[in-house]
C-alpha cells in the first residue's frame, strides 16, 4: 500500500491486470512467441519493490494474460490476433481475433480493447465492489461511528447548551 502525502494509505488498484501488446513481423512467430519467458520481465508500474519480483509475478499465469498480436500486412493494413483466456475474453470488442484494421484506426482500437479487457477482469474479480456499494458502506460506517442515541428533546437540549456555553464564554 502506498501512502498519500497526508499519511493515508492508497487502496490497491484492484486485481493486477496485465495485457501484452506485441508487434510481430511474421505471422508465424505468434505460435513460437516466448510469453512465459517474458512474464518475469513484465511489470505494470504500480508494484512495490518488495512484491514486484516475487508474489505478484508468480501468481499471474501465462494463460491468464491476454496478448494482442499486431502483424503488418503488405497492403498497409494490420492483422490482429488476440490470444489469452478462453471464454469471455475471446470476444473483447472493439478488436476481435482475425480482424484487419487500418493504420489510422489501429491505435484507438487497441487502446479501447485493452481498456475493455481490464474492465472485464476487474468486474469479474471477487474482491471488486462498485463505487456506489463502497460509498454506501462508508456512509453506514460514519453513521454507526457518530450515532448519538438520545431522545429528540435531549438531543436539542445538548445541542443548544453547547452553543450557548460557547457564545457566553466568548
Provide tags for this entry.
alpha+beta; two-stranded antiparallel sheet; 6 helices; 6 strands; 13% strand; RALGAPB; GTPase activator activity; Ral GTPase-activating protein subunit beta
Task: Give an overview of the whole structure.
- This protein has 170 residues and is α+β, with helices and mostly antiparallel strands.
- It has helices spanning 35-39, 49-52, 55-59, 103-124, 131-146, 152-169; strands at residues 2-3, 9-10, 20-23, 67-72, 78-83, 100-101.
- The strands form 2 sheets. Strands 3-4-5-6 form a 4-stranded mixed β-sheet.
- The two termini are 45 Å apart.
Helix content: 40-55%
The N- and C-terminal alpha carbons lie at a distance of: 45 Å
The SSE string, one letter per element, is EEEHHHEEEHHH
Low-confidence runs of at least 5 consecutive residues: 8-12, 50-59
Beta-strand fraction estimate: 5-15%
Determine the mean pLDDT. 77
- Total helical segments: 6
Q: What composes the largest sheet?
A: 4 strands, mixed
Structural class: alpha+beta
DSSP E strands, number:
6
Shape: elongated
Alpha carbon gyration radius: 26 Å
Strand order of the largest sheet: 3-4-5-6
